[in-house]
Specification:
The chain is built from 2 helices and no strands. By secondary structure, the chain is an all-alpha fold. It has one domain. Helix 1 packs antiparallel against helix 2. The longest helix has 51 residues.
Length: 73
């Protein structure tokens, strides 16, 4: 009985370790996705400024900013 308890405890510890690793990886992916989504939203906002910009020089500057933001994403 003592041996079975030791084996079950070892399996439980291994499962907890695997679960911790999987949760850590999921958190890393969620952070990466959030960063990418934020970058895309900033690029979209810059794109709207390009469309709504009144002066042509402002549009050119906004278009350059948009291009650099898209490259960064």
């Amino acid at each position: 009985m003592n041996r079975v308890t030791t084996i079950l405890l070892s399996v439980l510890i291994a499962l907890v370790a695997v679960n911790g690793f999987l949760v850590w990886r999921a958190d890393e992916r969620a952070r990466d996705d959030a960063d990418k989504q934020s970058c895309i939203q900033k690029a979209e906002a810059t794109g709207i400024i390009v469309l709504l910009g009144g002066e042509s020089e402002g549009r050119v500057d906004a278009a350059r900013t948009l291009a650099s933001q898209i490259d960064a994403c």
